[in-house]
Design a protein that fits this description.
heterodimer; A: 117 residues; 6-stranded mixed sheet; globular; B: 117 residues; mainly beta; 4-stranded antiparallel sheet
Chain lengths: 117, 117
């Protein structure tokens, strides 16, 4: 069975601080996909990144960066110089890589990030 | 990019009535659609998976006679909440996956907020 753990329920930072959101996953598959989504108060999920299990390179996109470490089954997300607009719930998710599974997503419980001015 | 719409965005109904929610893939053919439910301050929970032309597969604990899913075309899936009760009040989100739209990636609709009085 697959499982995604986001141990941080809520994080509060002051604008311009860096913040890291943790994600630890469990799967028996050797091939899988990891995702991060942002859910602002409006409710609509915003896709941030997808990473397959064979690509352990870290990725940077503007103020966002991701650290994927298979050895510790972690896929952490860092926001540099946080802004008030970054306030949202962030979900980490895991997908099986088998087409027969329809690539079902398993979500973590989410981390509520509040960036204060 | 791939766009998924949902209608209505909000619905308020009386207890005992049925409510239909539509999920449409606007610019790709969705071979698989997913329905999620999200209670306040909780994560997304997968309710069911539907493949076009087939019966939906429901997750454990989800009543298939209460949550009717129809995926009659490659661009439309509907979720009908029958005999709704206040405990069915929730945020319902659909997602769609298609071979030509990222393969294993799901594209999410904006969600439908259901309130049952």
């Amino acid at each position: 069975a697959q499982k995604v753990t986001q141990a941080q329920t809520e994080i509060s930072v002051v604008e311009k601080e860096d913040v890291t959101l943790d994600c630890v996953y469990e799967t028996r598959d050797t091939t899988y996909y990891l995702f991060w989504y942002k859910q602002p108060p409006s409710g609509e999920l915003v896709f941030l990144i997808r990473r397959n299990s064979f690509d352990e390179q870290n990725e940077i996109s503007g103020r966002y960066s991701w650290n994927f470490q298979k050895s510790t089954s972690s896929f952490n997300f860092t926001i540099t110089a946080s802004q008030v607009v970054d306030s949202a719930v962030y979900f980490c998710a895991l997908s099986e890589a088998s087409g027969g599974s329809n690539y079902k997503l398993t979500f973590g419980k989410g981390t509520l990030l509040t960036v204060n001015p | 990019g791939a766009v998924v719409s949902q209608h209505p965005s909000r619905v308020i109904c009386k207890s005992g009535t049925s409510v239909k929610i539509e999920c449409r893939s606007l610019d790709f053919q969705a071979t698989t659609m997913f329905w999620y439910r999200q209670f306040p301050k909780q994560s997304l929970m997968l309710m069911a998976t539907s493949n076009e032309g087939s019966k939906a597969t429901y997750e454990q604990g989800v009543e298939k006679d209460k949550f009717l899913i129809n995926h009659a075309s490659l661009t439309l899936s509907t979720l009908t909440v029958t005999s709704a009760h206040p405990e069915d009040s929730s945020f319902y989100i659909c997602s769609a996956r298609g071979a030509l739209a990222g393969g294993n990636e799901q594209f999410f609709g904006p969600g439908t907020r259901l309130t049952v009085l």
